[in-house]
């Protein structure tokens, strides 16, 4: 089974827990809408890629880690879209969860998806020692002091710490993807994989900046030009388009250099380089080349 | 250390994770406000009581389980109070979290408290096998298909299943308290403790009905007469006051009869009987006796 099929299968199995008799049907439907149809699944793919590079000797642990990370990402999008935050009526071109199901179910679906991430890990039958590592790693990536919730909460402070904001809101879950991929595969020092995740997270942020500054709405799949309009920092505004594209490639190269030794380092390197190319819209890659 | 001091100490340690450098200070303050000053801590006391009856041979596991359960209870109160649910400006006589910190921080504090419950378990250094059981048990009590989120979501269905609503919204976390108390102490069959928790949860619901129907606002600590005003089912309206009080004692007695054999069964029985008395306001206990 290819990795995308494997990721989708694990997610379908995880979310099916909400389809058991006795679960309120609209909650179940709201959770389905938050997770499917599939997004790019960037974080679980990264988790699987690292697990695979480390031998992937306990596939159930990798599947659970990848699913948990994606469920938490989806939960954060549902809560981010709420009227009290971004008040977004659309997500991936479809109605956001609160637009489709109302605000109470959007709050509850987000809550239930957060919990489902940990239920999925606990039910995975992965070996107990790895489970403890995975729950600590993934929990830290979404909680306090430096996970997604903390990152998002910087928006509620009188003075925002921009670097912490990005590192917590975006970087933390990417870092959890690489660290937990290594932990799921029994790597002796999963934390050694953290820098790779953080760097890829930053590259992803730069790619987002590039799409916002330099692609059109159809290519980006969402409104563009938002950073300039809101005076937010954007790598293209700072380095120019060619500069931002090469900064992105530098970040990926730098991430690759930090990779600890592992069984299948070559395949992982190739994959990272492919991903870096995929991140930049084709037309822009051509014009910046 | 007495059990209440032990519970508070564990909660203080757990919530201190939000006080680490780099955590947004207002998020940290909102989480503190959600957990302190102390409530009755009914669920962690139940968890500790069962653990103690089973020998409490791994106190760190019991502390973590009790804290996780209380953190999840507090998270559910924060989200329940939100404008899109109960829109409650007060909780325990003080401003609710969204009234004090705004809606975005109330959503995020609830999210972060849910995650903190699992971080607390993962960081507890309890033995990995018990950890896996605790996370599965406690996760199921708050997630889908039958945990708190699912219970609350019945309010969003066109037809509410009242029995499931109460069992999921209130009973599930009580059941998790007894089962995880037993699991934390290494009982060979923690699930055998579930009926005790469910029965105590139901007794607690009846006590709530009694306070709503028959005490005054000062005694109950919140507005009374709400069930009659909203046409909600209430044990006093069904059985009368004396009938409801004896139903409550019957439930506790029934729960006690389901207790599996354990090292300190006698102490636990005594404690349960004391609790049952404590649950009914003194004046009413005297008048119903």
UniProtKB/TrEMBL annotation, chains A, B:
Return the Pfam families for the record.
Answer: polyprenyl_synt
Q: Which residues form a coiled coil?
A: none
Instruction: Identify which cofactors the protein needs according to its UniProt entry.
Output: Mg(2+)
What are its GO biological-process terms?
terpenoid biosynthetic process
Q: Name one GO molecular function term.
A: prenyltransferase activity
User: Which CDD domains does this entry report, sorted A to Z?
Assistant: Trans_IPPS_HT
Keywords of the record: Isoprene biosynthesis, Magnesium, Metal-binding, Transferase
Q: Which InterPro entries match?
A: Isoprenoid_synthase_dom_sf, Polyprenyl_synt, Polyprenyl_synt_CS
Q: Cross-referenced PANTHER family, in alphabetical order?
A: FARNESYL DIPHOSPHATE SYNTHASE (PTHR43281)
The family line of this record is: Belongs to the FPP/GGPP synthase family.
The protein here is known as: Probable farnesyl diphosphate synthase
């Amino acid at each position: 089974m290819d990795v995308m099929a494997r990721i989708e299968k694990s997610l379908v199995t995880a979310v099916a827990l909400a389809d058991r008799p006795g679960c309120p049907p609209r909650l179940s439907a709201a959770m389905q809408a938050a997770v499917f149809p599939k997004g790019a699944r960037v974080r679980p793919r990264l988790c699987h890629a690292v697990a695979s590079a480390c031998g992937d000797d306990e596939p159930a642990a990798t599947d659970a880690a990848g699913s948990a990370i994606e469920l938490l990402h989806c939960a954060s999008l549902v809560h981010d879209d709420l009227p009290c935050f971004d008040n977004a009526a659309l997500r991936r071109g479809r109605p956001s969860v609160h637009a489709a199901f109302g605000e109470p179910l959007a709050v509850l679906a987000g809550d239930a998806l957060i919990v489902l991430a940990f239920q999925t890990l606990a039910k995975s039958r992965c070996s107990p020692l790895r489970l403890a590592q995975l729950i600590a790693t993934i929990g830290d990536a979404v909680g306090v002091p430096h996970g997604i919730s903390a990152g998002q909460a910087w928006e509620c402070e009188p003075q925002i710490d921009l670097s912490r904001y990005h590192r917590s809101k975006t970087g933390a879950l990417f870092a959890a993807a690489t660290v937990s991929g290594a932990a799921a595969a029994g790597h002796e020092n999963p934390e050694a994989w953290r820098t790779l995740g953080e760097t890829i997270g930053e590259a992803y942020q730069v790619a987002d900046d590039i799409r916002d500054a330099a692609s059109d709405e159809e290519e980006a799949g969402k409104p563009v030009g938002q950073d300039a309009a809101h005076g937010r920092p954007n790598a293209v505004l700072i380095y120019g388009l060619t500069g931002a594209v090469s900064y992105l490639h530098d970040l990926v190269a730098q991430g690759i250099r930090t990779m600890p030794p592992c069984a299948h380092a070559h395949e992982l390197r190739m994959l990272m380089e492919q991903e870096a190319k995929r991140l930049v819209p084709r037309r822009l890659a051509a014009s910046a080349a």
